[in-house]
């Protein structure tokens, strides 16, 4: 039974946010990956289009989530279902860090508005 201890999470930083990966192929997960996101106050991540469904659950704080052009404020305890092919932007307009838990399938890639494709290491 694979158990990933909290101290074994692998940290990645991009666009002002921190992603701590726990479930991924490197830890024994064949189909799913999961990570904790830490989005500092004032962070505005660029819009990106995902090629896999993501389940985004906000653990603490508040965020402004824009999904396919529709902006919604989400609070701790809220879950956003991001469909494959959707364009997502995340912003923390508050003065506190927000934390999230994201689950998706292994192999997720994202495309930025300028056409840059990303294969986030925490999702592969």
Main beta-sheet strand count, sense and barrel state = 6 strands, antiparallel
- Shape field: globular
Give the averaged pLDDT, no decimals. Answer: 94
In angstroms, what separates the terminal alpha carbons?
A: 20 Å
Spans where pLDDT lies below 50 across 5 or more residues: none
Strand order of the largest sheet: 1-2-3-10-5-8
Order of helices and strands: EEEEEEEEEEEE
* Global structural class: mainly beta
Radius of gyration: 14 Å
Annotation, overall tally of beta strands: 12
- DSSP strand (E) fraction? over 45%
Q: Determine the fraction of residues in helical runs and give it as a percent range.
A: under 10%
Q: How many distinct helices? A: 0
Question: What is the secondary structure topology, with strand pairs?
Answer:
Layout: E1 10-14, E2 17-23, E3 32-39, E4 48-50, E5 54-60, E6 62-67, E7 70-75, E8 79-82, E9 87-91, E10 98-105, E11 110-112, E12 117-118
Antiparallel strand pairs: 1-2, 2-3, 3-10, 4-9, 4-11, 5-8, 5-10, 6-7, 6-9, 11-12
Written account of the structure:
The relative contact order is 0.27. It is built from no helices and 12 strands. The two termini are 20 Å apart. Helix content is 0%, strand content 52%. The protein has strands spanning 10-14, 17-23, 32-39, 48-50, 54-60, 62-67, 70-75, 79-82, 87-91, 98-105, 110-112, 117-118. A 6-stranded antiparallel sheet has the order 1-2-3-10-5-8, with no helix packed on it. A 6-stranded antiparallel sheet has the order 7-6-9-4-11-12, with no helix packed on it. By secondary structure, it is mainly beta.
């Amino acid at each position: 039974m694979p158990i990933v201890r909290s101290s074994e999470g692998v940290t990645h930083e991009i666009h002002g946010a921190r992603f701590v990966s726990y479930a991924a192929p490197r830890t024994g997960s064949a189909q799913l990956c999961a990570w904790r996101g830490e989005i500092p106050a004032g962070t505005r991540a660029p819009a990106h289009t995902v090629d896999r469904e993501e389940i985004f659950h906000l653990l603490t704080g508040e965020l402004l989530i824009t999904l396919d052009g529709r902006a919604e404020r989400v609070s701790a305890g809220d879950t956003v279902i991001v469909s494959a092919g959707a364009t997502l932007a995340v912003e923390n307009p508050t003065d506190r860090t927000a934390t999230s838990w994201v689950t998706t399938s292994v192999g997720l890639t994202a495309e930025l508005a300028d056409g840059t494709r990303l294969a986030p290491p925490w999702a592969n």
